[in-house]
Amino acid sequence: MLRIAVPNKGSLSGPAAEMLHEAGYLQRRESKELRIVDPGNDVEFFYLRPRDIAIYVASGQLDIGLTGRDLLIDSGANAEEILALGFARSTFRFATKPGTVGDDLADLNGKTVATSYEGIVAKHLADHGIDASVVHLDGAVETAIQLGVAQVIADVVETGTSLRNAGLEVVGEPIMKSEAVVIRRTGADGEEPKVQQFLRRLQGVLVARTYVMMDYDCRVEQLEKAVALTPGLESPTVSPLHNEGWVAVRAMVPAKEAQRIMDDLYDIGARAILTTAIHACRL
Ligand SMILES: Nc1ncnc2c1ncn2[C@@H]1O[C@H](COP(=O)(O)OP(=O)(O)OP(=O)(O)O)[C@@H](O)[C@H]1O
Ligand SMILES: O=P(O)(O)OC[C@H]1O[C@H](OP(=O)(O)OP(=O)(O)O)[C@H](O)[C@@H]1O
Ligand SMILES: [Mg+2]
């Protein structure tokens, strides 16, 4: 049975469960459940604190984990990213009160930096030869400056609202970009069929979320131009229509570009242009 760690709380928890559900896996009904078995798929899910997931996976007791890239790196655990999942996207950045330090990292010399991600911050400072102290806080680190615990913070930034509300601004370049990822123990057997099947299912969800199916009719003379607009993944399906001189075309297109492609197809004479959602797929 494949054993998988899933975040039980925080920003990752809801979207992770939703993605697993879309991939056809049973998910827990109540937030207090710590473990469930999905017998139909031969999978056991363990609901763990997001911060602990890389440690469990590195220990070899669990085959796979869903966590944040930043949490994986911060843990220093012997685990590696094998698939990016596209949700819980954020950057990890230094921030401070306006005027405290400039954009030059060297300005952090001698300062105290508060963070919940001590591993990432200490390594980043050491890699750049910066001599600053790091104070570990559990959360709500934006308040650390107002309360005099630190002059600088390093934290997750998504919209920037938390920083603005605390009267802070980002300084310097982002330390890293994060999103939810699938991890496994470093060097674990990558060809394991159950793991491969799990990854294919999640990849299917990612594709279903980012592509739509597009169908349209066009004149044979316009086919090459139309196909250039909708090349599909392998190549589009082209079928004859009852009316001579017309064909029906079917291809997957990126959902974000669907409206622009429909306009362009219309302009070259395509008609009956439809898009439909993809619910699941295997590429
Ligand atoms: N506002 C946010 N937008 C996107 N991702 C976020 C946000 N806040 C945290 N994350 C991501 O969530 C993961 C951290 O999860 P964790 O449960 O520890 O914190 P949290 O979501 O802040 O919840 P908590 O309320 O327990 O602090 C990290 O990968 C982090 O990048
Ligand atoms: O840029 P924003 O959109 O404001 O998002 C970033 C904020 O979200 C998270 O905080 P959370 O609410 O989880 O509280 P925490 O600091 O206690 O983790 C993170 O730690 C930042 O504070
Ligand atoms: Mg948080």
From TrEMBL:
GO terms (molecular function) for this protein are:
ATP binding; ATP phosphoribosyltransferase activity; magnesium ion binding
The pathway this protein participates in, as annotated, is: Amino-acid biosynthesis; L-histidine biosynthesis; L-histidine from 5-phospho-alpha-D-ribose 1-diphosphate: step 1/9
GO CC, any one term: cytoplasm
Q: How is its activity regulated?
A: Feedback inhibited by histidine.
- Uppermost EC category: transferase
- The keyword Glycoprotein belongs to this UniProt entry's keyword annotation: no
EC numbers on record: 2.4.2.17
Principal cellular location given in the protein's record: cytoplasm
Quote the catalytic activity from the record.
1-(5-phospho-beta-D-ribosyl)-ATP + diphosphate = 5-phospho-alpha-D-ribose 1-diphosphate + ATP
Domain named Histidine biosynthesis HisG C-terminal: which ranges?
Answer: 208-279
Biological process, per Gene Ontology = L-histidine biosynthetic process
Cofactor dependence is on: Mg(2+)
Cell compartments where the protein resides: Cytoplasm
Top-level taxonomic group: Bacteria
- Where the record annotates domain ATP phosphoribosyltransferase catalytic, the positions are 49-204
Keywords tagged on the record: Amino-acid biosynthesis, ATP-binding, Cytoplasm, Glycosyltransferase, Histidine biosynthesis, Magnesium, Metal-binding, Nucleotide-binding, Transferase
Q: What does this protein's UniProt record list under function?
A: Catalyzes the condensation of ATP and 5-phosphoribose 1-diphosphate to form N'-(5'-phosphoribosyl)-ATP (PR-ATP). Has a crucial role in the pathway because the rate of histidine biosynthesis seems to be controlled primarily by regulation of HisG enzymatic activity.
Family named by the database record: Belongs to the ATP phosphoribosyltransferase family. Long subfamily.
Q: What is this protein called?
A: ATP phosphoribosyltransferase
Q: Which organism is it from?
A: Streptomyces muensis
The uppermost taxa in this organism's lineage are:
Bacteria, Bacillati, Actinomycetota, Actinomycetes, Kitasatosporales
